[in-house]
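Lecture notes, unit on protein representations.

Consider one protein chain, 118 amino acids long.
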Amino acid sequence: KNIFKDVDALTLKNVELTSHFYRNFVKRTLVWKMKFEFAYPNFMMTKENRDVANRLEKYSTLDNHLKFKTYCLKLLHLNLNWKNKNYLNKSINQKKIFFQETIKVLDTNNILTVKTNY
């Protein structure tokens, strides 16, 4: 069981595909859950992960095997996409959101605006 802790998620997924014996072993011993908790301790409780955790909530009704397998694989691909800069840059029309305000300061966490008309 512990040998799978050091295997990356894609390899573990491929090991499961090789035989019923390995799949049943991985499922019975909750290897995916152990892997998730080891790789992402307190992931669902961390404030910085709230958005991702909310998106993963839709998989929470699956059995533990599928749920944690999905979590691990989704987070692996999310990390790979960020590392490879494979994401969408979207621009928004700020006038539609702040139609009566002027943006004075903008950073990744805060927007400071001043209302121009009362």
